[in-house]
Amino acid sequence: MVANIISNVATGARSKGIAAVGPYLKSFSIVIVFVVISAFFAVANEYFMTWLNWVNLLRQSSINGVLAIGVTFVILTKGIDLSVGSVMALAGMIAASLVTSTNQQFVLWAILGGLGTGAALGLLNGVIVTSFNVPPFVATLGMLSMARGLTLIFSEGRPIPNLSESFRWIGGGSVAGVPVPVLILFLVFAIGWVVLSYTTFGRYVYAVGGNDKAARTSGISTRSVIASTYVISGLLAGLAGLVLTSRTTAALPQAGIGYELDAIAAVVIGGTSLAGGRGSLVGTLFGALIIGTINNGMDLMGVSSYYQQLLKGAIIVVAVMLDQFRK
Amino acid sequence: MLLSTGADPEGRDEDAFEARDEPLLVAEGIAKSFNGVPALRGGRLVLKRGTVHALCGGNGAGKSTFLNIVMGLLHRDEGSIRIDGVPVDFRSAAEALRHGVTIITQELSPVPEMTVAENIYLGREPKIGGLVVDFPKMRRAAKQLLDDLEFDVPLTARMRDLSLAQIQLVEIAKALSHRADIVIMDEPTSAIGEHEVHILFNALKRIKARGSAIIYVSHKLTEIFEIADEYTVFRDGRYIESGAISAIDRNHLVTQIVGHEIKTVEKGRPNEGAPILLEVRSLSRGPHFKNISVTVAAGEVLGIYGLLGSGRTEFLETIYGIHAPTAGDVFLDGKKVDPGNPKKCIQRGMAMVPEDRKETGLVLCASIAHNIALSSLALRAVSGFVRRKAEAAATDQMMRLHRIKAASPNVAVETLSGGNQQKVVFARCLLTNPRLLICDEPTRGIDEGSKQEIYAFLREFAAKGNGVLVVSSEAPEILQISDRIAVFRQGRLDRVVDGHETTQQMLTDLAS
Fold this sequence. Notes:
Distance between the termini of chain B: 41 Å
CATH topology of the largest domain in chain B: Rossmann fold
Number of helices of chain A: 14
Order of helices and strands of chain A: HHHHHHHEEHHHHHHH
Shape of chain B: globular
Number of domains of chain B: 2
CATH architecture of the largest domain in chain B: 3-Layer(aba) Sandwich
Structural class of chain A: mainly alpha
Helix content of chain A: over 70%
Largest sheet of chain A: 2 strands, antiparallel
CATH architecture of chain A: Orthogonal Bundle
Largest sheet of chain B: 6 strands, mixed
Strand order of the largest sheet of chain B: 6-9-10-3-11-12
Shape of chain A: globular
Oligomer: heterodimer
Radius of gyration of chain B: 25 Å
Number of strands of chain A: 2
């Protein structure tokens, strides 16, 4: 059955390679892969195509989506951020402690505390990368461990439960039938898309990733552009931490372990080049949706999570292979 | 008949003698189309033994197509190629090499951590018992080879420690060790300095003397007149003419390459007493250059001439803020410029066309429009948002003004020819409305027609009361565009001479 799915994905992708629809194909190809995978699950399980399931699927994808959008900024500058999973855990832990230690009118402080934690750690990443010339892989690998360590020290290894009703709304509430995390995802996507497409900063991100020397010669402060992308990634990791903590109704010290890999996978499936300078948030959004769909669909079919891991890995590799093939 | 390196000298000499009358390679009527679009029609070249044959032409002239066909990398639609009178039809570069044809391209590919000898015999090392590399034998063979050619390259040095010219010598030696009789050299001097060019040319003369022949491709006409015996011109995918280089002059060759007479750029003298635009006071940077003071007046082109390694590129980059100086100051319009900050320099009215457009000039994967707009985005933005209409209008205007030929402003810059890429760099610089344009080798690797356009543009730009600071290693180029010429030697300013009265000979003598 797994082989079936893989071959389905592969043939779907291949047929789009043959149909020479021109350059527009590139941005659509990820959508086609998404549709093919969805169609497969729709046939395999009748519950998959229901409204309720899609709301559920989107909610499941929202945390990874928010993380992946932040990581996209970093990867566009030829960097990488491995620390988002740990940063979200620390941000969630700090927010939870602020919620429980103050009365519930101070939920706003908890939110600011969580976002601030994420942004601050992101800034630290950015400074280490740009001012001390530490390779992004190493700098953020260090942060992955340090932020986890801080989370464990801060929480003494214990979860922080009993979060207030209003804080729990971030992860569990809904507006007009749409879950709040899904609204957050689409809001973040919309802002991110506008920033990358319509602002000078967005252009600088692409230029720095495409050729940092040329960008500097062109009068761009490459260091501050690069550092800013790590702040964005950290900030969004903080936001994702709030959503996760709120949904699980407790801050767990081991929350978010391995989330960075799903986020990077979503970016890569979405066609953003690890070599920098090429990619889009539309791709990342669908990359996150594809991962969410696979998880959701296979859960519905009762496939064990062991197989889910296997397939997810295969999809990542196939997605990048197709990208190389197109070039 | 093929040149063998030191194997059996007697046999070789006899064969070479017999074959002397007959051309080594005759290609006639070569045609090639891509998707029905002809890239080359009636391509023709007759290569005689013991000659350097310059193959000249602008971008799109069909040179690359022709050479790829000769090398067996492309398959011809029509025509014939004969080597030593025998018709050949190569299907791969390996097959061409077996028949003694080899190419040395711009991108050399040595293994940096291996020694010279190991690189020469890479993939065909002499072995003991078919297993272990016979290093002593390999070294002996390599020594014999290099001695025969009189190449001055240390045998046991690692490739990464060699200069670019030495690496080229190793590549040539490697080609000849394959018994190559026909060596194609594509822009061999694009990355090496004048001194190294002479080492290379001496080597070419020795190769010639042994009866081999060289097809030499270069945009640098000075070199062609120095080293070539014969020439062939292609233009717009057609054979134009060929002959002995001694029978023509530079103007004739340029006219044949470009297809029409080129008007040499008129140099008006700048006004006496024009205000000083740029003043550099005792600028130094570490080991690169020391205590250099120059000025550029409004309306003036100041040329900087010096050999590679004379500190000229570092000097320009320091003025523009890419590096911070260790001592000294830069003044623009009498006010001090913040050191080490290209962004501030642009805001103050400087712009720089860097030496290596692929490395530091362009974001290759980005579109033409995005590259052109890159430096001036902030000028046309409202609270951080790009004004797309204003941007599109500005880039369209620049593309028309500089005649950048492309299907659309949205295609990636990497798909353009060298000349058009360089125009994109110029366009990007000009959109910031600079008053001082700093150019490092502005015509490197681009064809004659585009070069002339750039010269004309630089003079015109200066005539409007702006300043130009330009580095070039081509003496005729510097003489053609500069009002004054600063001669650099080993990181120091040797002297400043008048660009209207100096001759090429004087200039090269001063710099060496």
